[in-house]
Amino acid sequence: MGKERILVHICCAVDAIYFLKRLREDYPNAEIIGFFYDPNIHPYEEYLLRLKESERACQILGIKFIEGDYNLEGWLKKVKGYEHYPEKGARCVLCFDDRLEESVKKAKELSCNAFTTTLLMSPKKSQDQLKKVGENLAKTYGVKFIFKDYRKGGGVQEMNKLVRELQIWRQDYCGCLFALVRQKGEKAFLDLTGFYGRLPGTKEEHIFIRQLKVFAELKGLPTSEEEFQFLGWFPLRGKLEIAKTKEVIPSLIKPFSAPIRGVAKGVVTKKVGNKLYLNKQNVVIELTERLKGYPVESPTLSNPTFVVEKKYEKLLLKNKLSATLEVRVEFAKSRNLIVGDIEKSQKVVLIPADTTFGGEGITLRKAEGIIDQLSEEIKEGKTAVAVLGAQSYSLGWKYLKELHPQVEEKLIVENP
Ligand code: SF4
Predict the structure, then answer these.
(1) What is the pLDDT of residues 101-132, one digit of tens each?
(2) pTM of the predicted structure, to 2 decimals
(3) 65-95: per-residue pLDDT in tens?
(4) How far is the CA of 184 from the centre of ligand 1 (A)?
(5) How far is Cα 276 from Cα 213, in angstroms, rounded to an integer?
(6) Cα(91) to centroid of ligand 1, in Å?
(7) Could you give the domains of the chain?
(8) What is d(CA 50, CA 118) in angstroms, rounded to the nearest whole number?
(9) Pocket around ligand 1: residues whose beta carbon is below 6 Å from it?
């Protein structure tokens, strides 16, 4: 008989790291394959985050990792009619069904003798439900289901310890948008809204930082994170248009602009310097040569302000305009990622993680290139890299200086 081969469905890195470690101890001669199949994770950015982190957990343990399809449509069809059920209810059984069935199929395709799931590790999941689903599928597909309760005997505490030690990303909701909205209510908007670029405090910024962390760790470089909170401003939607023709004027919305109630329809009644003032809801239009490169600074006023290129000035002055703007202000989190030993290093290289409100910023590839190029110096302790969160508002830098006052005296190389 050949070597035993076990396919392990992975739901997230938190549950996977300890479960896989224990499974490997129990099956020292088996080949273990991690299979990430989770179309129940919404939105897609959150899916990517958990995917990367799970890949990292497998890499730490030296376990092969494969990704399944992100079959969102198929998953939504499966749970149709069960959207309103609470966690641990009937929707979750359908969700387990879907994920475990895809896993047993993959196990069969890869000639595995057995399959199991890291969901068994989650204190929030019913092991009985999982066991039932797994054993039914085992009968149907002729692949053994391995049931393990690694939670008992202090397993959950051990898992939490390992997660802390390895700084594994810990999500704060199960996965699907239904559970998310039920759990967070109104606040779920930050998780479910896609923002252009990587605005401070958004999941887009977070993913960028996390991807760089995984990249650095896969290169064997030490990393640490320093999280901070701030009052974030999030534009949900807004536009400036010619009222009659509905022609949309390309514009940027100035950070910290106040929202507009309904639609502000009005005409420009005043021009001072480069600013046009509408006679409705304090709307301001700031003229600039080019939108690209428009600097982000914390304004002292919060009039709803659209930044528009000068070439539209005549059009704006001779037409009735219509402006809409919906924004949210919310306490948000961001973080600095430090690669290397910032205390000992002679040089600290700064990389801003977020982008401006025009979406300008460093690409992931470029940031990875900088870390890659400096990796030898980082290993030798001569250089550190600080990836700064919410840097459009200079917050990452302020927090870095607060925690590491000596860093200012070092040679700082700003990201080009
Ligand atoms: S709450 Fe979790 S287990 Fe239940 S359906 Fe949603 S993602 Fe699946």
Answers:
(1) 999 999 999 999 999 999 999 988 889 999 99
(2) 0.79
(3) 999 999 999 999 999 999 999 988 899 999 9
(4) 15
(5) 44
(6) 7
(7) 5-192 (3.40.50.620), 203-230+332-414 (3.40.630.10), 232-330 (no CATH)
(8) 13
(9) 40, 87, 91-92, 95, 174-176, 178-179
